[in-house]
Amino acid sequence: MLHIHRDPLPDRFLLIPASDSSASAELDLSRSLHRASRSDKPAIWLDCSLINEPLSEDAVDILLAYAFMLRQQGRQLVLCHANEAIQTEFARHDEASQPSIVSTLLDQPDNGSGMVQHISL
Hints:
With 121 residues, the protein is an alpha/beta fold. It is built from 3 helices and 7 strands.
């Protein structure tokens, strides 16, 4: 079972999954994304800091599908703290279908300007 911490924040829904190679990992990811997508938050953030294995093809497909669906709704799927393997995996896909990828939870995703904005606290 993939362990996913869910945290609705004022401006986003944060999901923090931990690596798991079980058969139900993709199902758990899909369920968590589905629950988060039912919220009224403008963005779903996936903190990848606890993922230490490459994503499966199914997990990548799930994330691409949710990125597309949320974009159609004027919302975003944002990955943060993604390791190099995760970033490389998404770089192989069409830029228009990729989720946004930022370095930290304090960064704002690219809003079309080509630059990532940093949030100061």
